[in-house]
Amino acid sequence: MNTALTVIALLAIFLLPAGIVFLVRRNKILGAIGAIACCYLVGFAFSTIGLSGVGYDKNLTTTVAYVLVALSIPLILFSIDLRSVKKLTKGTVVGFSLAIVSAIAVAVAMFFITINFFPCADLAAMTIGLYTGGTPNMNAIGAAMNAGSETISAANVSDTLVGGIYFLFLISVAPRVYRFLLRRRKKKQQPLPDLTEPPSEENKEEEEKKDDFTFGFSIRDKKCVLKLLGAFGLSVLCLGVGALLELLIEGTVGENLLYILLSVSVGGVAISFIRPVREIKGEYALGMYFILMFSLALSMSIDWSVFLSDILPTLAFFACAQMSVILVHLILCRIFGVDGDTAIITSTAGVYGPPFIAPVAKAAGRSDLIAPGVICGALGLAVGTVLGYGVGMLLLLVPAA
Prior knowledge:
Layout: H1 3-24, H2 28-33, H3 35-47, H4 58-78, H5 90-114, H6 121-130, H7 135-144, H8 149-170, H9 174-181, H10 201-211, H11 222-250, H12 258-272, H13 275-278, H14 283-300, H15 304-336, H16 340-351, H17 357-363, H18 370-396
Helix pairs in contact: 1-3, 1-14, 3-14, 4-7, 4-11, 4-12, 4-14, 5-6, 5-15, 5-16, 5-18, 6-7, 6-18, 7-8, 7-18, 8-15, 9-16, 10-18, 11-12, 12-18, 15-16, 16-18, 17-18
């Protein structure tokens, strides 16, 4: 291994995502691709360096990737206010519960359908995480189940391709389709806003909910930096507790990531109830930056021969899974009387998580559903990782025919 190339690779992991975020926010084409997909593309380009025979230490970049995703989970969860779940209407609770049920049912069904063709307990577990809160859940579950760099990378590429198509559907004709297939909730006519008046508390809440889950925050003073450093320290503490538990129980560190996954997930949720920590601005953005670094590091670590053999079956698995999850959710919403607008928002919360709620809600002409949708997405982030991992471990116990 070339030491200089390894140092350059590590510097790239930590610095390049910042440039990618800058470009994605200013270029429409890159914005449509997305920051995570761009990180994977850059990582794939880096990974070809080793094909010449001399390259960087890919084992090290893999280890760095797994540490980064473990640190990202608590940072993302710190910003969640789970107490806000009590503000959700009955229809929203039912709609999002059906989204979770749909993800689990489809993932388990896909597992049993494909078990005799290729081992897919990890893909089924990642499917549950992905469709109950988004990409952070999927990546954390893949790392915890030792799915491998190639499988996780293939899953992210598949999610980008299939998920991109569904998102275009959501912001175009989906509102009309959902309202046609499901009853449309009657909404009271609202008077036109008085532009001379300050924004209402409701509108402020919607904007705050939306802004909490974007890269759109700015560091204005040293206090903000210190608070974010404090939040990062707490995420390191959560990781350290998990590593210590593994060391005490298993006698090793890094072999069984169950303890780390539980520690960062449960610790992140528990600490989110501490109001000063929860209200630190930029925690979610920092956590997502760690996801970008993870994406870059993981894609830099792939073995191309393994990746190319994984990509087609993984793409087929996630394409079938996503279409099935959407259809099952739609059918269940019809059975349980969930209206079209609520169904489309809760589906978005499950498939994509909080960041995509605002554009879909506005495309549907329902900005009032931004806050409930973000709450559902945040709840999915909180429960999806443990839920997906738990089901995945149970599926590993099922023998092939």
